[in-house]
Specification:
Strands 3, 4, 5, 6, 7, 8, 9 and 10 form an eight-stranded mixed β-sheet that branches. Strands 13-15-14 form a three-stranded antiparallel β-sheet. Strands 1-2 form a two-stranded antiparallel sheet. Among the domains are: 177 residues, Alpha Horseshoe (Serine Threonine Protein Phosphatase 5, Tetratricopeptide repeat); 159 residues, Alpha Horseshoe (Serine Threonine Protein Phosphatase 5, Tetratricopeptide repeat); 336 residues, no CATH class; 155 residues, no CATH class. The protein has 1233 residues and is mainly alpha-helical. It is globular, with a radius of gyration of 37 Å. The chain has 57 helices and 15 strands. The longest helix is centred in the C-terminal third of the chain and has 25 residues. Keywords: ANK repeat, Repeat.
Amino acid sequence: MPAKCGALRIPQHRYRAEMEALWRILTAIAAVLMQNFGRPAGQSEGLDGTEQEILEAIVFEDETKISRYLQKASNVDKLFSINEKTFSPLHFACEIGKVKIVEMFIQAQADVNLQQIQGASPLYIASQNGHHQVVTTLINAQADVNLQLKTGESPLHIASQNGHDLVVSALIKAQADLNLQRNTGESPLYVASHFGHNQVVSSLIKAQADVNLQKVDGYSPLHIALQNGHHQVVSSLIKAQADVNLQVNTGASPLYIASQNGHHQVVTSLIKAQADVNLQQIQGGSPLHIASRKGHHQVVTSLIKAQADVNLQEVDGRSPLHIASYFGQHQVVSILIKAQADVHLNENTNGSSPLYAASQNNYHQVVTTLIKAQADVNLQVNTGESPLYIASQNGHHSIVSSLIKAQADVDLQQIQGGSPLYIASQSGHHNIVSSLIKAQADVNLQEVDGSSPLYIASQRGHHQVVTSLIKAQSDVNLQHSDGSSPLHVASLNGHDQVVRLLIKAQADVNLQEVDGCSPLYIASQKGHHQVVSSLIKAQADVNLQAVDGCSPLYIASQNGHHQVVRSLINAQADVNLQRNNGKSPLYIASHFGHHQVAISLIKAQVDGNCEHIDKQESSKYSSALEEPLEQAEFECSPSDPELSEQLHSALEQSGFTESRAALQSAAADVLQQILRSRLNHVDFFVVGSYSEGWGNSLTTLDGRTDANSDIDVMHLIRGREYHQRGLCECDGAPEQHELVNGHIQCSGYASNPASTKPGFTLRPALDDVFAGRLCRYPPIALLLPNCVSNISHPVLEALRKVLTSASSPCHVVHAASPDREGEELRVSTSFLEKRMLRSLTTLQGQLFITLKYLVKKVICHKNGFNQQGLKSYHVKTITFRMVDETPVEQWKKENLVSLTRQSLQMLLDCVEKSREQDRQTPDTPDRSRGRIMDHFFLSDAAIYLKGADKERVDQHLDGIMSTLRTVIDRLPQLLQQFIGSLRPVSDSGTFYFHPFQILPDLRPMPFTKSSALQYYQIYDVVRECLVRLSHSDCSPRSQESLTELIARLPDCALSAREALRALACLKFGYRGTAERVVSLYSGHSVSRGIAWSREKSATEATEKFVMRHLSSRDSAWKFCFQFDQRPKLEFLPGALRERFPFRLSDGYYYFYMNFDALLWALRLELRTDRVARAQDWIRDVSEREDSDEQELQVAAFYCSNLEQLREILKKLKMLEAVLPDGLKKRLQEKWHF
């Protein structure tokens, strides 16, 4: 589909802008002269007195002065300069249409073809302004009618653009070239057609202008007239025999464009003129395709009547019916079905049918129509999902009901074994789960890996779904292939309510996984003390050991979970039970420095009576350990201004500046665009801290994500749109929902806003957030009339733009206020938050980072105060309030500590107010309990405690208040600790951005077969190359196709390309060629990141800049892939075979490839490089702070320097890397490790 043409950019020319500026100056001069009856005006910048005088004379047509001026021959063509603009008096006279003055200059032999810097002649200027008499005068003086600007415009172009018909006629009569084209190909007729000047078009046609002359992109006058809806012009061009089947470069014909724009009458005219109704553009789309997509049902009817092929498919296989179904154009669907469109014609990419597309996007009328037309309700896509499966996944309850009623197979499984019930259980759609159970869906149908509906619902914490499945006799002990049960995964994720439901349903509390882990072991490992208590109460064996001998107490002691350790000791856990390696719980707690745990274990060993732990003694022991350090810190604490300077400086050195935050945001925008381009879907948004610029890391702002942070991706589900009662202004009387407390009242969805994908050392965790559109934003408190704020006007305006921008749609997510799960959906203001955070100054951003550190690392962290209930969103809200309420003059670096203290006090005040309200009104509804503060943007909404049971809300609030008071009291010491935790950026300011390493969606996607690859397609080409390399096929055809595919990779993936080329040579037996390939680029360096110095400004950090950086350097060399099984590169030597690709973790099929490391491994293995150069690389890896696990392992394997090897092994230990057997053997044989 062609992109809609923007406004045609024939300059009224820079000259026009210059002369208008000059005219404003001279108008002011004239006004002054008239006002003062002849008194001289002030001097204009750049004009001397004589020049100013002659320009005034032109304005007032003072022929006497002009005659006197023209007596001197050098004055005739003299060029004036004003405000760096150059022109002659004749240019100026033509601009303002002074024909008598023009004649005087011509008589004085002025050069009528004198051009201004950009090429504007007097005739061009007069034509531009429609001064017909001046134009005639200049033509009579032999002015060149075809003299062009540097960009190719002639006087006829500009007169045609501006619709000056008399001027056009004069120029035509003077033999102006009718077909002279701009540099970009526009003819005068094209320009006139673009702007809809039908009289000019008629004049040009009458003069025999070429009606089919195309510009460089293939657009003809007819195309552009159609695009812009100039129907009279279209009629004139058709009448003049314009080619109605002429195609632009993208293949769009005039009929395609008219159909796209819904111009029914024009379509009729084109059909009557014999336009080809089936002419396809390069992607295969016909006029019927585009009209069907846009819902132009009258156009569709006309095209069908003209014998358009209703089953013509695009390149990707989509038919008009498929497209209409996908976009919910139910009237068009009915028309196409009536015209015998094939309801089973599938598209090629994933094999979806029209019914699948409509079911996916919640178009109920379309689904009903297709079912009525006998569409196969069980037709599956390539990966096995049926229409019922996708509707169940997306929560489209009415669609599910219709499909069940139409006898859809409720147990039809996709290739991984997932059923509709499984995916509905996973997504928490309990209404759909109920409907499927009622339709006799098999509640114990397992996926290939053994996961059942109950298992996945328990894993996600969907207790309403779990209740329904248990009631339907789901097997509570059905195990996954790794031996885990629903109770295991509920315990793993801390879903205490689900755990209690499963226990009540007689789940086996001592069932062990393959590795021997029991539910209690897993809950103890993760520190979920409430789950631990529930399992102990249910008689779980507290001494049940895993295969390696670890007991629940051992693993809780290792991880420092003090509350869990106490619960296990109270339950008579054996404190001396050792692991297979002989280590005890006390040993491992001491080894990791968990003092409180060690004290509890010692106490339990001493008195043998573990019923009551001496809390006072434990506290005293702990205090004794910490007191000297705290006292020393207190004694040397600097003043607030001094500490502020230190903190500000440390944060700046660690990259926490406005400029680098802008670069982080730009990188996120690029990642979002790559994601959208790969998936061919605009409804994916990178949100959260990675996108907001600040908060992605609390140690340094260099593009890398903290281990306990993640990247959030929001997916707007097509077809799911909600409307607020009292605010909705949408047509068609859609169903409306009440908005209460920032939530729309809508039942059937689980309160689980995100689906988490695990994180690893080489790849951050990812949160997939599924959302539905809300037709408009509710009232935004900050933007209400009469709201007084210290937020700058530009930021407020940017926030207002968010409310109406298509790129920041209002939406709701699967989250509810306390005790309202499954009854409401939360309105998200993530785009307003993103805009606000991206607008923070350096100091404001540093305040946000400081507060986030204090909440996450001091207040909530297990090694801090371990006080739960606060979250990053509370920090964000307090930061916004500080920006809103703090006067601009207080934002000074010497005030940073004071601002931090004020912020903490503000948070404390909010909690105290909430606690007081609960005390005064003990019968407060559950939805109001745990309310900490008002939402910053939504005027009627609250923000709550995180994860507090309603029975323990008061206890949580009291704990938070106490902890906040302590943090405020100890703020100087805590801030000094924060300064010590910061990591300065490198000298070059390297900012790390490897989009294919952190790509949120790793599903393989098809890529274009043409030669040129877009950057986003590199990922799928590299993936496909690895897959083909792992196949056993070594035929000549396989070799040729793989070689051609590798060759398509551009230089920005040079290392990947050459490494793959070398692998292909090894696979097909060309070792010598492989050696030459890896040697050829041995001096080449990859781009490790973006060098971003402190001098860079935030305005330089743009999406375009980041994309240009990626495309101009070898940037695509780090990749993460997801495979069903590890690709086996059997032709590699054993040492490399176990290292490439690198599996990120057991239990997950994520794989990492560092192609730079692979190239060096091949050079070292094939012995193609000089020893010194190879050892230089190994030394570089040992010294670099950013060396990753894969290159460290390669360097360790080939290292010949013991000191370097020790440094490499130290780095691997810090990464908690598991050394492969081959490397262990090598180290043992060579170094006796």
